[in-house]
Design a protein that fits this description.
By secondary structure, the chain is mostly helical. It contains 9 helices and no strands.
Length: 185
């Protein structure tokens, strides 16, 4: 019984990822989850009390995987500048990943305070991850520099997600240049 519930919950989360990836937060509804999983709509409520609860669980499950991929890319890089470059490149490479697309869609939606706090905490982990490299590069306030760097990454993500006129690789290169050299280019 517990294994069946676990499989149903995983199927609901996978359906939620797909819905968010395909249609944004408006597409994530309990009727749509029920249709995608073959469950009765009332059964979806047995697993999640609200859309925000689905979002919170997606963050708990998906964000650590995403962060681990960024961390792994940074660990493989040489020197602090290489780590900063890997931090930017890996996050932007993940833009097409369904887990990432779901997190982006989630962060743009109207959520309750609990769900927003989980997203903030997850992003805080990314900021902490890059702080040491920025400190090694001589930044007097590495945490502030890390938050600003994440802002550059977030802006590049939005640009790629919007299907901007620029090729995603050009957006990535511009973000890396901004991260390493500022507006001088």
């Amino acid at each position: 019984m517990a294994e069946h519930r676990s499989m149903q919950r995983a199927a609901l989360l996978d359906a939620a990822r797909s819905l968010l990836s395909e249609g944004g937060t408006e597409a994530l509804t309990f009727p749509a989850l029920a249709e995608r999983t073959g469950l009765a709509r009332s059964s979806v409520y047995e697993y999640f009390r609200s859309r925000a609860a689905v979002v919170e669980e997606l963050c708990e499950v998906d964000f650590p995987v995403w962060a681990a991929e960024v961390s792994s890319a940074m660990a493989a890089a040489d020197g602090p500048e290489g780590k900063v470059e890997a931090y930017v490149r890996r996050q932007l490479a993940l833009v097409g990943d369904r887990r990432h697309r779901a997190v982006v869609a989630i962060s743009a939606s109207e959520l309750d305070a609990g769900a927003r706090e989980k997203i903030r905490a997850a992003h805080g982990g990314l900021v902490t991850m890059i702080g040491e490299a920025l400190g090694a590069m001589g930044h007097a306030e590495p945490r502030l520099a890390a938050m600003l760097l994440q802002g550059v990454v977030d802006a590049a993500v939005r640009r790629i997600e919007l299907g901007a006129a620029e090729d995603p690789s050009a957006i990535t290169e511009a973000a890396v240049t901004m991260a390493l050299r500022g507006v001088r280019g």
